[in-house]
């Protein structure tokens, strides 16, 4: 760290820095609060999506108990092939948003499979989309948590380090300049006294 210069020019520089820091801090704190709100929303959305998947899986088991029949081969019937993500700007942070999920359904004979397989296919599609939404929701939480952590670090930097340090520097310079000014006054009085041959200080009489 550069050594503090004790001068009027340095005092002005420190005052300018302090004014800038105090101007930036409220906007940083506002953004931090907004990110905290968005992070809380993202966490709730993640939990809601996870619970939706659990409900969907329970619904499949309740509506289609015949899945327990091991003679019917269902593996690979529905497979997610692709999904599209969009990006949205939330408080200056770019977040992914699920736009579309594409699933491939294996061909099957209507005669070889029972009629409830059609309903199962729809449920499996829903489950694939819901699981993808969980992953996207988790990524949104991760990105927002990182952004909130970084902005909190910046707020703490301004609030606990830069502003107090600059205030202390201003105080140091002011004290030093004040001491120099008083010393200069004393020196001037001493010089005047020597020139005039009189007393420097007023008489106590």
Q: Please give the largest β-sheet.
A: 2 strands, antiparallel
Rg on CA atoms, Å: 36 Å
Pairing-aware structural class of the strands and helices? Answer: alpha+beta
| Broad shape | rod-shaped
What is the overall number of helices?
2
How many angstroms separate the termini? 54 Å
Mean pLDDT: 83
Stretches where pLDDT is under 50 for at least 5 consecutive residues are: none
Helix content: 55-70%
Going across the biggest sheet, name each strand in turn.
1-2
- Order of helices and strands, N to C? HEEH
Query: Strand content of the residues, in percent?
Result: 5-15%
According to DSSP, the number of beta strands is 2
Please supply descriptive tags for the structure shown above.
single chain; 205 residues; alpha+beta; two-stranded antiparallel ribbon; 2 helices; 2 strands; 66% helix
Question: What are the SSEs and their pairings?
Answer:
Elements: H1 8-63, E1 78-90, E2 93-105, H2 117-196
Antiparallel strand pairs: 1-2
Give an overview in words.
There is one protein chain. By secondary structure, this protein is an alpha+beta fold. It has a domain at 29-151. The chain has helices at 8-63, 117-196; strands spanning 78-90, 93-105. A two-stranded antiparallel sheet has the order 1-2. Helix 1 (8-63) packs antiparallel against helix 2 (117-196).
């Amino acid at each position: 760290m550069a050594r503090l210069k004790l001068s009027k020019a340095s005092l002005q520089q420190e005052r300018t820095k302090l004014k800038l820091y105090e101007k930036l801090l409220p906007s940083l704190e506002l953004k931090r609060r907004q990110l905290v709100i968005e992070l809380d929303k993202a966490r709730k959305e993640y939990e809601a999506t996870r619970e939706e998947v659990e409900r969907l899986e329970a619904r499949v088991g309740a509506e289609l108990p015949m899945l327990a029949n091991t003679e019917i081969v269902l593996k690979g019937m529905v497979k997610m092939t692709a999904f599209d993500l969009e990006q949205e700007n939330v408080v200056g942070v770019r977040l992914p948003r699920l736009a579309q999920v594409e699933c491939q359904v294996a061909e099957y004979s209507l005669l070889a499979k029972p009629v409830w397989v059609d309903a199962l296919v729809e449920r499996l599609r829903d489950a694939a989309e819901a699981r993808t939404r969980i992953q996207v929701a988790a990524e949104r939480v991760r990105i927002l948590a990182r952004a909130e952590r970084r902005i909190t670090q910046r707020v703490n930097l301004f609030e606990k380090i830069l502003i107090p340090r600059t205030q202390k520097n201003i105080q140091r310079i002011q004290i030093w300049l004040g001491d120099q000014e008083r010393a200069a006054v004393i020196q001037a009085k001493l010089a005047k006294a020597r020139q005039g041959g009189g007393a420097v200080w007023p008489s106590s009489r």
